[in-house]
Amino acid sequence: MSDFTSDELEHADDDDDAGAGDSGDRGTISRNVLTYVAKAIVDEPESVVIHAEDDRRGVTLRLHVAPDDMGKVIGRRGRVAQAIRTVVRAAGARERIEASVDIVD
């Protein structure tokens, strides 16, 4: 697993499955961080799909994964999901937006 520098996160190419174009340039770093973390956790990284929705507070990222990977993304007592939300929220703060993550089945 390689580390991303802040320049790589800001200028990473948006994949089609990352919800590119859903919210313009707003939330790009947050979306890239979520994509990277989710694909690193799951067994089927090609099934990771992220849709971004803008609202007046910031951006909401909806994470879709394979049904067999839901447990890995949520974790025991929701600890992995909470950690993902914390990291993505911190990435959003770097962009000066409020970023939130919804995990959808």
Radius of gyration: 13 Å
> N-to-C SSE series?
HHEEHHE
Kindly identify the CATH topology: GMP Synthetase, Chain A, domain 3
Main β-sheet: number of strands, strand sense, barrel status?
3 strands, mixed
State the separation between the terminal residues, measured CA to CA.
26 Å
The assigned structural class equals alpha+beta
Mean pLDDT, to the nearest integer, reads 84
CATH superfamily: K homology (KH) domain
Chart the SSEs and their pairings:
Blueprint (H helix, E strand, L loop, with lengths): L5 H6 L16 H14 L7 E6 L3 E7 L5 H5 L4 H16 L3 E7 L1
Parallel strand pairs: 2-3
Antiparallel strand pairs: 1-2
Helix pairs in contact: 2-4
At a glance:
With about 100 residues, this protein is α+β, with helices and mostly antiparallel strands.
Tell me what you see in this structure.
With 105 residues, the protein is an alpha+beta fold. The chain contains 4 helices and 3 strands; from the N terminus they run H-H-E-E-H-H-E. Strand 1 and strand 2 form a beta hairpin. The longest helix is centred in the last third of the chain and has 16 residues, at 79-94. Mean pLDDT is 84; it is low at 12-23.
